[in-house]
Design goal:
This protein has a domain of 40 residues. Helix content is 5%, strand content 34%. It is globular. With 79 residues, it is mainly beta. Strands 1-2-3 form a three-stranded antiparallel β-sheet, with no helix packed on it. The two termini are 20 Å apart.
Length: 79
């Protein structure tokens, strides 16, 4: 899927080995279970990773509970 979004800002993301990397940030609507929210997403090529998108705690706050022992238990149900 390909689409265009306005870049809101550039964010300095600290990487695990210490160096910061500048990444563009866009606003994206995400549906998780029955909850739809707009959230800021920083962009990076994740083609070599297992997950294409990481969802942060700010998105999950006050609406979701995470069970680290389970995976893929929710299906999108947003209108």
């Amino acid at each position: 899927m390909l689409f265009e979004k306005k870049v809101l800002r550039m964010a300095a993301i600290k990487r695990h080995f210490g160096e910061a990397q500048l990444r563009p940030v866009i606003q994206l609507g995400l549906c998780l279970g029955g909850v739809y929210k707009l959230t800021d997403v920083n962009l990076i090529d994740r083609s070599g990773f297992k997950y294409q998108l990481l969802i942060g705690r700010e998105f999950l706050q006050q609406t979701h509970v995470v069970d680290p022992g389970k995976t893929f238990i929710s299906t999108p149900a947003c209108e």
